[in-house]
TrEMBL record:
Protein name in the entry: LruC domain-containing protein
The organism's place on the tree of life at top rank: Bacteria
Keyword Disulfide bond attributed: no
Record's keyword terms, sorted: Signal
Residues covered by the GEVED domain: 336-410
Membrane-spanning segments: none
InterPro entries on file: 6-blade_b-propeller_TolB-like, DUF4842, DUF6923, GEVED, LruC_dom
Signal peptide range in chain numbering: 1-21
Chain intervals for the UniProt region annotation (Disordered): 265-309
Organism: Photobacterium sanctipauli
Amino acid sequence: MDRKVILSLVPLLWAHNVSGAAFDTCPYTAFLMQDSQTNVYGVNLLTGAYQTLQTDIGQQGNLNAAGYNEADNFIYAFNTTRKKVVKVGNDFTATDLSVSGLPNTPFYVGDVANNTYYLYRSGLYTIPLDESDPNYLKASKVEGSDGNMKLTDFAFHPEDGNIYAIDNKLGLLYRINPDNGQKTTLGDAGVTGTFGAAYFEASGKFYFSRNKDGIIFTIDISDPDNIDPTATQFAAGPNSNLNDGVRCASAPIEIQALDLGDAPESYQTSVDNNGPRHDQSGNTLYLGGVAPDSETNQESSDDETGIDDENGVIITTLQGGESALVTVTASQPGFLNGWIDWNQDGDFADSNEKVISANALGAGMTSLVINVPNSVTAGETWARFRFSSIEELPAFGGAPDGEVEDYQVTLESAQFSTANYGPYTAAFEDSWPRAGDYDLNDVVMRYRIEVKSDQNNNAAQVKISGTLQALGADYKNGFGIHLPSLSRSVADESNIIFIKNGEPVIDSPLEAGQGNVVLIISDNLTADTETNCRFHRTLENCQEAERFSFSVTLPLVDGVSTASLPDAPFDPFIFAVDGMYHGEETSIGRGLEIHLDDHPPTDLANASLGLMGDYDDRSNSGLGSQYRTENGLPWGFIIAENWSHPTERVDMLQAYPRFFDFCTQGTHTDWYTKAKRVSQHLYGME
């Protein structure tokens, strides 16, 4: 079929003007009519989930001001494009009605009650729909009706016979008497915006959705004589424009397949309490490896039925004043929001209790860092995590997809003393066992150490954080920190928090196969740094900010005395990257380590022992002298000062002439000061 034929069919379709049959019964579904050429959607008010019901209404134009007539089970609406009142059947196709008496203007606000169609624009209009009425389809304006309300939809209460609406500009809740069109202001709803769709359900709850963000709000009008006008956010629905909502007000809300929370009811868990709920109709967004089961009872919680499906979140120790790692597994990309009840008061309402906000997740595993307040008290509390295609979600209310998972967690109070060490700057020449250009800028790392200990002087954790200052190497190097004499077995590996370049790292930095604690900060600094220069921060003609940072929080098992910890600054070292060239006859990968002077290699670097004494190295392990040249110069050193490194291929002794005396004789301990350095040879000092 060619394009011309397709186009010729469109006006014929719009021109057939034959509506479908009436709805069989008063439907549970809320209908949303939207767009300049109307499409019809079914909306689940509990969750905001929606589906397309009709993309061809049988005529051209935008349908608005819609209402459901329980007398004949048809929808009545106003075609704002053609300025016609229409009748809509169960197939959502529209038929023009011959209505007289309306001004020649579009109407956007309307509803049906008592077999009468009510429209609003600068006043209230009525159109009888009873064919036996002598004024059938004859519109008339209600004399004296209020014409100053800023409305985009209203809805009839299923019991008291009045109209209710939210003023878009003022955010006020109105009760409108359909007999005289006069309003009574019931109070401030607390929200403003364009509320293009309004609905009631059988219990008397009033629902209205805001166009710009799709949020569905509710006000309980089940007792019209006792109304709290404050609106409650209820669900996350579709964003809308040129829209109108319509629903049979006598129908209750249908509880369909939902995923619910598990926390105690004080945390708003059940549907009756506007608890978190996620639509499971065709849902493929969930946490963990098991899709959530579904509940259909509005008073239940998730664990009362089906399987225990809380398997998508792992949380490390929640220690007051410390960071914790939240590791999340997602079935596919979506957004995560999370809360922890820090003060254990039975809600997630306090200002600091939303710990994860609209964090975008990819499919698979993601780790996030949260900070535990200093003020927490030891005890049990609850955490809630919501995953959905909706970016921002509160701890309550509906969502059109995804999952909610609640966890009981333990808080540990902050009762530790803190000792801080550093900053230290460790610098290395990576040509060992050859002297190379001896610019000592192949790897320059600045870092700090923090040790927390309890009242019994037992070490609870060690935190090391740092920033790469320079990477002037042709070879590819990794960087690690060895904690001599601290057994690997005392590390609480499952609770380590490892962050590189601001992002949590799932893989543990604690190296396997070592007798002591060895933390591998980077397997390949070149890959982690991604510099835009040939060398990172060693060339004056290519200066850039630091591009690699890290922190490792290493918890220790109970009973590790502070006295048993090695002295700061520990033992930083660099090592060759597996599979990469690192010099003739010395390309042995991870087995090649370069340490500070007089520090032996780790358990995984026995190959380095075989290179000691070769080329320019004159190590003597029997005398405890390692990684030194014949003149006693080291391939790595550390300084507890802010130190400026040499530029590329400038010998350290040219930049700091007294460094030789310091290394070989122990004199000139101030070798690094301004008076004893040659600034023109230092990076960033010209």
